[in-house]
Amino acid sequence: MNQAEILDTALQEATRLWGIAEGWLLSPAAWSQFALLLIAYLVALYTSRKMHPLLGRLLTPPEGQDSYIARARRFVALFLPLLLPLLAYVFTGLGESVTRSLFGSGAVIAFGKRVFLFLAVRILVREVISDPVMQVLGRYVLVPVAALYALGLLDPAMAYLDATVVPLGNLSFSVLFAIRFVVVAGAIFWLGRWSNDQSSQFIKKQEEMRPAMRELIAKTIEIAIFGVAFLLVMNIMGISLTSLAVLTGVIGVGLGFGLQKIASNFISGVILLLEGQATVGDYVELDGGEAGTIIKMTARATILETYDGRWIVVPNEDFITTRVVNYSDSGSANRYEAPFSVSYDTDINKVPAIIEAAVAKHPGVLTTPFPPDCELRGFGDSGVDFAVEFWVEGIDDGKNKFMSDVLFLIWNALKAEGITIPYPHRVVELKTPLPEQTA
């Protein structure tokens, strides 16, 4: 269809709409329908103002409740802005049945009903939907469709879009098919993502399961949900999966050569989750020097958070092919030692008992697998060298200041017993006597 034909069609449609509008303005039945529209809107406005506070109280759970019923109530409460246009739509529908029984026609009030439906769709997109993907679909697909439906132009527009064919090599499809595909795929994958989020939250609350098993089950459910979503989209749109066999075969060969690392990282991630040797919350150190707490495990990589808040993205393959030190696997304890020295004037036989008793007072120091153990390490240049070994649950990081606390305990215990901590002394010998000073 060229530009002249499009312009001619638009003029014909404008003339038709003007004829309809002129007939409405000169018809007593039309004026009665306008009056019924106004009455229906006023009744809906009055009813919504009375019902809105009551529904708001019924649908708003007490603060702090997070049960499934409370979530359902909050979800339904999101649709309260649609109360007015939907009530107007219902009352207008009742008025339409009255006018059709009295006058045999109800075109005006039917148009008003479609307008109220358009307003409901517009409010839904602007005030209710918060997901970015669904907002885009609503703004650029749902609202235009509702506007065309309100004007009575939906069927001609769909026929035009269906007749517009887009060639793509040996394939061709209509614009209407492409729009339907985008809408259906977007809605189904949004529903899949929502279902995946809900299932992940439920699984993460199962404290009796190992963290690695929870992550593995969550990833398996995610793959299953989006796999089913893909099959649903193909089935709803009438696309035969056998027609995609050649294309998927070519893509599979390309993936085999070009995405070997991604496949390797994915398989390594599954192995990590199955074995459970490293999971979320563990502090690990890799052979390459990367160290941090695991905060997230994805299909491709594991994310570590360092003490200073930086994130390190480590490919899952590195956890399989290199040496990994896990400082907190399965909640195991860790051993630290704090070195110190005492003066040579000290009775060193008393030092171990004093230090062991002082370190044992720390609430984080464990008695199993071993209690604090103070050992003589050597005789230094300035003092006698000791070290106390102690076991703690966790690692000595920013929030667990085990080493600092233990050193404070050592200092205070030695001071309380009158034991001095030496510092380096130097003796300087002068080969030449100092010159005498004259007065």
Could you characterize what this model shows?
- β5 and β6 form a beta hairpin.
- α5 (107-128) packs antiparallel against α6.
- The chain is elongated.
- Helices cover 58% and strands 13% of the residues.
- It has 14 helices and 10 strands.
- The model has no long low-confidence stretch (mean pLDDT 79).
- The strands form 3 sheets. A 5-stranded antiparallel beta sheet has the order 6-5-4-3-7.
- The protein has helices at residues 3-25, 28-59, 68-77, 83-103, 107-128, 132-151, 154-163, 175-204, 211-236, 245-258, 260-275, 316-321, 351-360, 402-416; strands at 165-168, 171-174, 283-286, 291-297, 301-305, 311-315, 324-326, 333-342, 373-379, 384-393.
- It has 439 residues and is an alpha+beta fold.
